[in-house]
Each structure stands twice: as C-alpha cells, then as structure tokens.
C-alpha cells in the first residue's frame, strides 16, 4: 500500500504535464473541421470527430491546459485570502474574529453549486465567474484551518518572546507563524487542487465557464453528450481524462504531502540475539530516527526484561519521549529514515502490518503520555474511556470494575459512578494523569511505557503513585520503562537507570551501582589544607586560641 501514493503522484504529474503542453502536441487546430459530425475514428481523426466535425483528439489535448492553470490559480488565491484572514482573526480577535467567523459560516451554509450560480448571475458566464466561485467555496475551510493553527502557534513561548522583543505584527507573522504553517499548507494544498479541478470542470459541463470555441474537458462532455451512442469517444475521452487526473491526485494525497518517505534497514538477528528477544518485553537494537536536518535517535540499543523496572533520565530535548514512542512504532511524520529494529513482546514492529501492530500494542503495551489532556477525547467521559481500554484488553465488565475500583482506591481517586461520568476538563490535571495510569494498567499488560507519569502531581501524590506502579508491576511480572526528571525519586523503584544525551543512551547501570557512584565520600576536617588534626591533649586544638581561622 505504501507504493500507491507515489505511483499516483507520478501518474498525476505525467497527466498534468501532458495537459499543460497539450496545445502544442495537437495535430490540428481546435476549431478546424476535419469530417462530418460524430464521425467514427479513422486515420486522420484517431478518436473521431465531435458534434461540429472537429478532431476529438486535438481538442482533448488542448482542453486540459486552461483547466489546470485556472485550478492552480484558484488554489493560490484561495490560500492567500483564507490564510491571511485566518491569521488576522487569530491575532486581532474581538469583533474582527467574530465578523470573519460569521461570514465564513454564511459561505459554508450555501451549497457550492448554488454559489456558482449566484456568481454567474452577477458577473456573467466565463472562467472568471468559475474561478471566483471556486475561491469562495474553498476560502471558509482554509480560513478556519489557518485560524485554528495560528491560535495554537500563539500559545508557544517563541511567539511571546517575539512580542517581548517588540516585533511588529508583520514580523511575527512572517518569522514565527508562517514557517510553522508550511506543513499544514503542504498537506492541504492537494485537497484544494482536487476540489478546484472538480468545481471548474463542473462549471464548464453546465455551460457556466468555458464557452465556444474554447476546448475544455467539461465543455466537451456537455457538447457531445447527445451523440454518445453514435460516437462515444467524443464524450468518454474527456471523462477519462478528468478521472485520470483526479484519481491519481487523490491517491497521492494518501501519503506524499503528509508522511515523509521512510527507509527501513532492519538487521539480521543471530541465534543469541533471538534468545534475548524471547527473554525480554522490549528489545531495541541500533535504532536511529532521522529528520531532514536532524537525528532524533542515534544507534540506541536497550533491553527491558520481564519484571524489570527501568528509568530513562536525561536533559530536556535529549530524545527520551521520542525513544518511548519509537518503542511503540510511532515516529514523526517528517521522519526520513529509520534504521535498526524494535521487538515488542517478541515481534518485530517493522515486519508486521498496521493492523497487527495495533492489536499488538492494545494487548501487550500500556502507555501513559506526558500530557493526558492532549491524549483523551474531550467529548468522552472517563468511564467510557476506561470501558474502551478494558475491551481492547479483553476484560469482562466484572474484571474491569474490580480493577478500576481497586486502583482508584489505592491512588486516592473517587470510585463512585458520578466521577466516572465526568469529562476530562471537569477534573484536575493530577486526577486525569492518575486515571490515564489506571487505564494503562488495566489487564496488566506485559510492558508499561510511561512518559513522566507524575509531572502534574505534588510530592506526596507522586510517592504514592510511584509506589503503586512498582508494587503492581512486580506483583504481576510487568516490565516498566518510564521517563523521569527526578533522579532520587526514580531510583527508589527502578532496577536500572538509563541516561540519554543528544539522542544516545550514554550510560546504563543498575540503580545500586549508579547511585553509589554519585554519593560523595565524607570530607574530614584533617583533609582540609591548614586545619589542625584532633589531639589527645586536654586542650582542644580547634578552639579560638588555636584555630588557624582565628582573627
């Protein structure tokens, strides 16, 4: 399935290229009469003639240029208008935002065909009316999309820093916001081009855009439809041309504009390596994850055995969260290369399909994200989320209720029905983080991955949660890999400590050995330069009269 987007993009590019240079490839002029109307294909007219006797093949080659150029122009103007209005609404807010949102709602409420008819009624038939209608159809969606993305960008610290520096609104838009909207543009532009081609072709088919003697695929379908039984090529040829343009473009949108190309280079496992895979819940070997201009993970190897609790520590940005998600087979969309191998519950993540990977994660892995509010559906209650997680683990209702009640009581959460009917925004961040931990623990999966599971908790609650994680994991022989910033706290429950720096695991040691190396040796007074050693005489040598630090 990975090949379809690229094949679609190649075929679309070929069709677009032929459509753009088609007028120069046509053997005859578009208005040159070659034979009687609806003549059958012959040596001078390969696809026969149309309702006027013109060569169908020549008009077919000439009919795609205007359609493609005007579709690209429509998308460009729609994105300029919708993008600028979306950023303006997000930055200014107040009455400007309310007015633009109301206008977008009005345009969205009008069907596209009716909007096209209204524009043609006002401005008359022609390509100009069709382009304006296409822009008006696309602008509301683009406006809402850009507004939402800009509002998200405005919450980032670098935008606040730009405001503190006194930068102008135009500078903030150009330097801070617009570069971060480019991935959104690349993912959306294909959809808009698809919509623009369809709108313009429909307008020409209805006689509202292209007019005689112009050659246009939509116009050719409308003109020759009455001769479909006599000379089908005059009608079917432009239909096939539009389909061969839209279908490959639609296929290419499946992956080319959203997911970057990923290259896998899994190593070959030896017998001893295969034995270590069977003995571990998570086995990562020589894993590297690369972006176009950055290496997120660089040749990382680690193994989490059955019943082992390991802590992953390191500075911010060292790749801890990325490694945790890589263990689940989750990689950034802009990843360009993935090398190495990941075995989860004895299975290679890169040798199974997406459906098998989802089942593997659901059955054998529990995951607690760093920010639970971004991971739960806002419209889903806590009880519904727990029921869904329990069903994925194959638990019965009785087993689910028993485990939820037991875990909630240990963590100090209410176990009544009213609490389970609440939504994520109705409880505190600490409560939500504990609910996510309980959901990950349901059914006691073999591996538990936790990204700072106590970041929203106070000191006492943190100790209780960490003790609960350790006791539950050891009671059910679960393996745990968790990200932590508090080293003393992590050392209380972890069997092993892994240190990450700049995308590499630079150190792996047992907790006892790691902590022993960090504890400094006691410093005696006699080891300090200039200090007197204790004496057995009756007069203490460190009194004021004999101290080297006396005034």
Automatic annotation (TrEMBL):
Classification via Pfam families: ABC_tran (PF00005), BPD_transp_1 (PF00528)
Transmembrane parts of this sequence: 7-26, 67-88, 100-120, 126-146, 189-210, 230-253
Localization per Swiss-Prot or TrEMBL: Cell inner membrane; Cell membrane
Single GO molecular function: ATP binding
Domain ABC transporter per the UniProt entry, residue ranges: 282-527
ABC transmembrane type-1 domain residues: 64-257
GO BP terms: transmembrane transport
Keyword vocabulary terms for this entry: ATP-binding, Cell inner membrane, Cell membrane, Membrane, Nucleotide-binding, Translocase, Transmembrane, Transmembrane helix, Transport
Protein's UniProt name: Glutathione ABC transporter permease GsiD
Membrane topology reported for the UniProt record: Multi-pass membrane protein; Peripheral membrane protein
Organism: Klebsiella pneumoniae
Family: Belongs to the ABC transporter superfamily.
Entry GO terms, CC: plasma membrane
Highest taxon of source: Bacteria
Gene that this polypeptide is encoded by: gsiD_1
């Amino acid at each position: 399935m990975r090949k379809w987007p690229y094949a679609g993009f190649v075929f679309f590019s070929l069709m677009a290229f032929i459509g753009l240079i088609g007028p120069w490839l046509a053997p005859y002029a578009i208005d040159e009469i070659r034979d009687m109307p609806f003549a059958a294909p012959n040596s001078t007219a390969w696809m026969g003639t149309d309702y006027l006797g013109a060569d169908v093949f020549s008009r077919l080659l000439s009919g795609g240029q205007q359609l493609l150029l005007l579709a690209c122009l429509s998308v460009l103007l729609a994105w300029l208008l919708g993008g600028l209005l979306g950023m303006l609404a997000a930055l200014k807010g107040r009455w400007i935002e309310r007015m633009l949102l109301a206008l977008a709602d009005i345009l969205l409420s009008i069907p596209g065909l009716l909007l096209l008819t209204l524009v043609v009624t006002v401005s008359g038939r022609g390509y100009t009316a069709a382009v304006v209608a296409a822009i008006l159809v696309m602008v509301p969606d683009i406006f809402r999309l850009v507004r939402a993305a800009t509002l998200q960008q405005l919450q980032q610290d670098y935008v606040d820093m730009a405001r503190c520096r006194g930068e102008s609104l135009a500078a903030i838009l150009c330097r801070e916001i617009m570069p971060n909207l480019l991935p959104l543009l690349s993912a959306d532009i294909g959809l808009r081009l698809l919509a623009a081609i369809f709108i313009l072709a429909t307008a020409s088919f209805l006689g509202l855009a292209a007019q005689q003697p112009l050659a246009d695929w939509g116009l050719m379908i409308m003109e020759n439809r009455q001769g479909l039984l006599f000379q089908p090529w005059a009608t079917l040829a432009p239909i096939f041309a539009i389909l061969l343009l839209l279908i490959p473009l639609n296929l290419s949108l499946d992956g080319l504009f959203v997911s970057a190309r990923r290259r896998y280079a899994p190593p070959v496992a030896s017998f001893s390596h295969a034995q270590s895979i069977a003995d571990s819940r998570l086995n990562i070997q020589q894993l590297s994850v690369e972006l176009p201009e950055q290496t997120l993970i660089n040749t990382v190897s680690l193994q989490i055995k059955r019943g082992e609790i390991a802590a992953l520590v390191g500075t911010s940005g060292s790749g801890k969260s990325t490694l945790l998600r890589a263990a689940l087979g989750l990689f950034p969309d802009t990843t360009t290369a993935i090398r190495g191998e990941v075995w989860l519950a004895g299975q290679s993540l890169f040798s199974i399909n997406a459906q098998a990977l989802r089942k593997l994660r659901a059955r054998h892995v529990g995951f607690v994200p760093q920010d639970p509010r971004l991971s739960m559906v806002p419209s889903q209650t806590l009880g519904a989320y727990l029921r869904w997680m329990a069903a994925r683990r194959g638990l019965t209702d009785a087993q689910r209720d028993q485990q939820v009640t037991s875990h909630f009581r240990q963590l100090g959460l209410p176990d009544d029905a009213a609490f389970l009917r609440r939504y994520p925004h109705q409880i505190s961040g600490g409560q939500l983080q504990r609910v996510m931990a309980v959901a990950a623990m349901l059914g006691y999966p073999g591996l538990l991955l936790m990204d700072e599971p106590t970041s929203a908790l106070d000191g006492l609650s943190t100790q209780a949660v960490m003790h609960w994680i350790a006791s539950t994991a050891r009671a059910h022989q679960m393996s745990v890999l968790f990200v932590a910033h508090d080293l003393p706290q992590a050392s209380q429950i972890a069997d092993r400590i892994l240190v990450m720096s700049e995308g590499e695991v630079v150190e792996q040691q047992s907790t006892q050995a790691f902590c022993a190396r960090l504890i400094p040796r006691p410093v005696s007074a006699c080891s300090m330069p200039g200090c007197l050693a204790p004496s057995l005489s009756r007069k203490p040598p460190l009194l004021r009269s004999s101290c080297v630090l006396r005034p």
